[in-house]
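Trying the structure run again after the queue cleared.
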Amino acid sequence: GVTVLASLRYVYPVEKLGAGVSFGNLDTFARVSRESDLQGLWSAWDDEHYAGDLTTRLFADGAALVPSNTTILPHAQSTAYAVGEVTATKTFFVPLETDALRTAYTRWRVENHAPRAIALEWQVDLRWNAMPSPYHAKAPTAPQTEKVVASRLDGPLLLAETVRRPYTRLPNFFCPPGVEALGNPSESRVFGAKRGLAALVPHECRVLAPSRVKLRYRLVLEPGAETTLDFVLTFSPEGLTPAQLAWTAADAANAEARAIAAADEQRARATLFTPDATINRGLQWAKLNTFRVMDRYRHGLGFTNDPPQDILVVRDAAWYAMGASYLDAPFVAGMWDFIARHARHDGGKLTEYVRCALTPPVKEDDGLNINDDTPLWLWATRHHYALTRDRAWLDAVYPQVCETAAWILAQRRDGLVECTVSGTNVFGIASWRNIINGYQLNGAVTEINAACVAALRAAAELAEVLQDEARARGWREAADALATAIEAQLKRPDGLYALARNPDGSRRDEVTADLLFPLLFGVADAEAETRVIERLTRPDFWTTYGLRTVGRDEPEYDPAYGWGLMGGIWPNLTAWACYAFRKRRPDLLAEGMRQTYALSEMPEPVNAGRVVPGEFPEWFDGDTFESKGMAMSPWMPPTFVWLGLEGLAGLTPLTQGPRARLAPNLPPEWRWLGARNVSLGQERLAFFILDGTLHVAGAAVEAAEPVERYDAELTETIASDAPFTLALRRGDTLRVFVATDAPCVVRLRAEGEDYFIELGAGEARMVTVPVAARV
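Done. Tokens:
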């Protein structure tokens, strides 16, 4: 079914895949089919779809090449084709490191193994208007599917512009606030074929209604020869000229080489390596997918919880930042700037979501006076500052910290933070589980109160950094009082936490996975931790697919109702539980991480629901374990990065003193764990934990374990083919740590000497190399 190589590639027979991969850069988001054809091209700047399906088929002497295997790579997806003695690969990618990010490439590489010339013909079928896909939960809105795009051939180039139409002529379509017509009046697209840098004129071009074009391109391939043909699609929200300039400058070979290098650089950031191969693959793909959903909207940087769209949900942005700050802190700072300008309400409350591409951006709070958006923003703000120690950034954001903390305190009634709404679904649920039809969760919700304790403690830490002692003391006292009130008012007789205190003062005793939040946010005492962990690890909650939102034995259980929020399995919930359990049950931490990413590596994804290898599915049916949400959850990848670094490695960024605390949470059978290139502001941290001793270089950290500190990391100065290598120098001694998650023989060259080391799966070794003293 699947082959996984060290270079992070997946190879599947085409028929075993359902959907293809989702790709993205700051300006563009694209999806492809299992045969590597484009199935949607979207622009972040204006939240418009610029292409639906772009299908290319190749014929050799009139016979269609047949797809066999599809390979998923960090930067691209490629499908192998063949007929007779002609073989080919079709590769799709979007650029990652160029100025022309509003581009999509389909590269055909063809080889003729026959002793005679072969006539090649590519047939292109291009539909401009957005098309729904059965393999993706996210469907384009009706106006995006109803666009009329006018196309014309100009020499080798197909030029296409949207025909702008008033909404008034499209009955039954919802018209967003401030929008009076269908489409951006300057939407433009340019399509054509290139052989090298030379444009190829199509043999035939037929412009069809509605918004469809068919083209044919012909070449003759000599015996034993090979050729490459690139189909290039560029777009612009600002008229034809920028799109034409981008198309003319497009160089597919250079763009692909730079995309490979960029993907490798993304993977190299915040590298954590464990004895478990599945977890390691998950960590690598998590980093790649974190970058794919970074967007540059019309009004600033942001991330959406349901790509492609321009909706930024503050809750999900906060969770996204917990991992993304390790990978691209400037992006997170830019997103925080957008939130400061467009996601705040008077008084300091953070909104539920913002439409980022509308002018002006439109925010919506669903009428809630408090939910998790507000405390999570404060919690993530402290985290970002602790990672970066950017004092100028903190000075700028601190007034908002003060307002937001004050807003939380103003929502207290009888000692607890209370949500006062009385609606249902998003208008009546103060919880992360907020999209359940007919459901209400208001009053003093345990999850929200626990999050507010963490938020007030975070605000107090930031106040201490700025020597605002009065506020720091007040917020700490308020956090302690709130924690005490949770224990006094939100505990059931059996020692578990209630779901909420209703507005009328009665207690809601339903048992859900939300029990974990007092542990996650540091509110629960040791006895409560024990009780909650015992309850949530019973088989009705804890499964081989992760943690159910509601236990199968609970009366409210439903495996799929409310997007799985009444009994389905959400991987991000499993991640939160793993973090909450990390000290008591590090075995479950590792097991949960392994299980979570294993869901992405199904032997036959086509039979598992919406699953794409290398991506984290959104949620699963609690009974059938079928993936029913997004094939690529956009918030789960950075959450997985965060869980690895702060769960397994036990890294806690600090706001003052040493840059971080290291307290690893390793399963009993693990002897080691290694990390490199972990950014803490302008400093880097590298460490290797081996047999209970922490070996560390770079940024200053505190640790309870025995610690050996080194002067410098010199990994780049040695040659090693180990899956993970870390070289640390102290004085005249160089210690090289090599580790693997699969059996191998490692060749190591350091200080002019060669070392050959045989390692079994999950093994690590330390090699001591004498070196001359260095200044």
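The chain has 16 helices and 48 strands. Worth checking whether this holds up in the mutant runs.
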